[in-house]
Recover the amino acids of this structure.
């Protein structure tokens, strides 16, 4: 096992009705940026419940944070925060809204262009505290310090990570996910599954407990994910998917073990260039990456197959992963998607150029996914 | 799944050499109570490493916290704290020392007799912050708010729990466990295993991820525990046992599911009356409790057998649990131990009287372990 430090400061408020606890967690004299996305929370009643719990606070609403939140939109929210002495951000939505809140929190007192936080790793001070009300289980953003933001102007998708912007609390009410569109349910389960894979599918370091936890999350997602599509209002199924997605990326299972994240880095370019859903890009890249990295990942691929899917062999395991993605309704080839009219050959050239431009030239747990290997992966994923 | 709130504030510093991080986690102008037990840390070098990391602090040593820490001893430490304006407690040892530190932290500013914190659930203010350096993986005390203290005068073993006394950091260095006596290694693995059982072996509430995590910890303890006895200086084995014991009782696996704790409550009386090791009492009580509660625990017992031990049937599962305890060198019958010369019949009468005196008359996840049922359990465990 590798050395590690681990702490997770987020208070999880899990279960139906937990929104009522939010008011007691706000600062006194709360001036709250109420941040959300496209407005679905107005249709399913969450919006009204949030207003009720914020009734003693000064509220500044900011709607319209898009999937893959953009620097351009978030900077408008930064202005609202700066102009109104906001002292708390309540992010109501999925990973995009919560990731966006982290950027806003960090940007508030930043002297220069806050994009430097993402592009140069610039440090920041006095971030605002954030609370999260999760409506889409997927990214784990509700209890980690990670944020990914896209600059539309330059088609760059970049991330930063700091425990100082990790939510202080997160409301996880499974009922809030009943009305999600099927596509988001599918994406969420695939996203969470690949988060586990990135921290599991590397090489053995004699860390059996981390392996068991990772396998337990994947087993749960594989069993419960399809049920969430079939019976959208099954509370326990939704609860199990929700808790699995949080545990998949709250830092725990990756402690003491190597991590990969190559699939994510290559996938980010697919989203930045062609606006594919994040989970779609992962479903495209992962099976191909597993094939190309089969030799160095051999032991863990075989363990994944045997323990999680009940199959034997590397090819059989990769096929089982593909089947899970397809069961969740997420296609696994670039040619299954609209690439703005580009052929897959053209797309691959552009993707490799983007990886190189963004310095993503030594990916994976061994740093051995250079642009040539990334090209092989993308060709297999075409 | 049941509703829950979950937060764990302890920063885990895991791995060899992590003691060096302690100095950076102390308050400025640190006045540290350096609390430890019988002095084994002076033989294995931990004592010197602690002094090195505390070199900029004012240190007040307090040695002699015994296994099952006593109110009488701890009150002497409270005096040291009060007389020297101590502002931090560094607890170096196993669960007894860390549990003791929590009582000291809570008692410091308590106006009346601090035993009321345990016996009456009295509230307390301004507890001192605690750091833990773990030398014995077993209780999970290093990252929870639980404390169990024994009053020798009245042979009462009682607990309290508050997140305000949970350690702010915990050093988990597997090398610190190389020199542990075999008996403590055995006890630790059994203790951690039963912690998991108390949160797992109840009735199903459709919480598959919690089940998988619990099973993963038990699988790891069963595989690694005996190896720790065979090869005491195998770093990875020690690391895996240590991390399993912490995860067994840091709050996570018990969230959203029913909990039992009947084995612990009955076991506490065996320790209070006959000074048996905590783990010994658990190994005695659990198999008998499983037999008596077999009907209401049926589904989870069968699941435990199949998933963790690879056996089918209730009796076979109970036997597998007994075998694990025996493999770890811990005997499972009252008659295997010295009960101060009492026959098991006499002992059972005294134990039942103690349970009644302490109000432990409705134990277990259904509250159905009354004194009559506790007697049946103890008779089976005789």
């Amino acid at each position: 096992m590798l050395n590690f430090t681990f702490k997770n400061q987020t208070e999880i408020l899990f279960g139906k009705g937990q929104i009522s606890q939010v008011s007691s967690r706000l600062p006194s004299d709360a001036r709250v940026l109420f941040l959300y996305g496209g407005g679905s929370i107005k249709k399913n009643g969450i919006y009204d419940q949030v207003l009720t719990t914020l009734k003693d606070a000064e509220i500044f609403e900011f709607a319209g944070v898009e999937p893959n939140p953009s620097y351009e939109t978030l900077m408008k929210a930064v202005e609202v925060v700066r102009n109104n002495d906001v002292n708390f951000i309540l992010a109501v939505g999925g990973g995009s809204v919560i990731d966006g809140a982290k950027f806003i929190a960090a940007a508030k007192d930043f002297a220069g262009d806050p994009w430097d936080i993402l592009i140069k790793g610039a440090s920041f001070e006095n971030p605002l505290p954030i609370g999260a009300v999760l409506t889409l289980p997927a990214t784990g953003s509700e209890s980690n310090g990670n944020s990914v933001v896209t600059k539309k102007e330059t088609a760059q998708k970049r991330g930063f990570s700091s425990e100082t912007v990790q939510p202080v609390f997160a409301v996880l009410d499974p009922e809030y996910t009943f009305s999600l569109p099927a596509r988001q349910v599918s994406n969420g389960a695939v996203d969470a599954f690949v988060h586990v894979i990135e921290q599991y599918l590397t090489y053995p370091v004699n860390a059996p407990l981390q392996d068991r936890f990772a396998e337990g999350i994947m087993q749960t997602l594989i069993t419960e994910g399809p049920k969430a599509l079939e019976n959208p209002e099954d509370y326990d199924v939704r609860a199990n998917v929700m808790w699995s997605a949080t545990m998949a990326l709250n830092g725990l299972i990756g402690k003491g073990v190597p991590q990969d994240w190559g699939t994510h880095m290559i996938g980010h370019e697919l989203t930045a260039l062609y606006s594919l859903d994040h989970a779609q890009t992962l479903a495209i890249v992962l099976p191909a990456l597993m094939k190309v990295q089969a030799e160095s990942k051999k032991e863990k691929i075989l363990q994944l197959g045997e323990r999680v899917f009940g199959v034997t062999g590397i090819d059989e395991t990769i096929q089982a992963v593909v089947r899970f993605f397809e069961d969740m309704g997420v296609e696994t080839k670039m040619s299954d998607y609209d690439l703005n009219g580009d052929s897959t050959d053209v797309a691959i050239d552009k993707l490799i150029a983007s990886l190189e431009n963004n310095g993503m030239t030594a990916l994976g747990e061994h740093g051995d996914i250079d642009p040539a290997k990334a090209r092989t992966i993308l060709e297999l994923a075409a």
